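Review session, final week

We close the course with one last complete record, chosen because it touches almost every idea we covered. It is Elongation factor P, a protein from Shewanella piezotolerans with 186 residues. Go through it on your own first, then we will talk.
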Amino acid sequence: MKTAHEVRPGNVIMLDGNPWVVLKTETSRSGRNAAVVKLKLKNVLLDSTTETSFKGEDKLDVIVLDRLDCTYSYFADPMYVFMDEEFNQYDVEAENLGDAAAYITDGMEDVCQVTFYEEKAISVELPIIVTREVTYTEPSARGDTSGKVMKPATIAGGSTLSVADFVKTGDMIEIDTRTNEFKKRV
């Protein structure tokens, strides 16, 4: 148990029987009144966000979620199956993947972190940088070289993002999975 004052972003707290990740904390103190802590929270199971306030001395139940390094194995509609080093398989529902689903492809060797709550896989966190092949992009426009020229490209897995003008179909590129931005050609 921690007081609301001691809770930091990244902590997972239990409220009304649901686990919530603390995204942001803001403490305000005014004159004679007790400190008030405002928390921005994200529900681990439902992927919804909310803001709530607590008195600084309110006790909150902080929990620790299990994380395990796994690799993607296969897709069994509607579940994505991941495997750890000991060949244990874990099913993650497609809706729990969120934006990560765009980067999951057959044969990928990236190590992902699977998060568990009560022994159930609830989310997958990809590495920050992934390398994917450009499956389609328009040819470069000649003479358009002023500034940072970007064009749309489709990568393996089907998602579309903006890439530099010099990238061609078949090139391997690095992508930042947090921002969905092109980093460089490999």
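Two points worth writing down before the exam:
Residues 66-125 form a domain with the OB fold (Dihydrolipoamide Acetyltransferase, E2P) fold (CATH 2.40.50.140).
The helical segments are 94-97.
Good luck, everyone.
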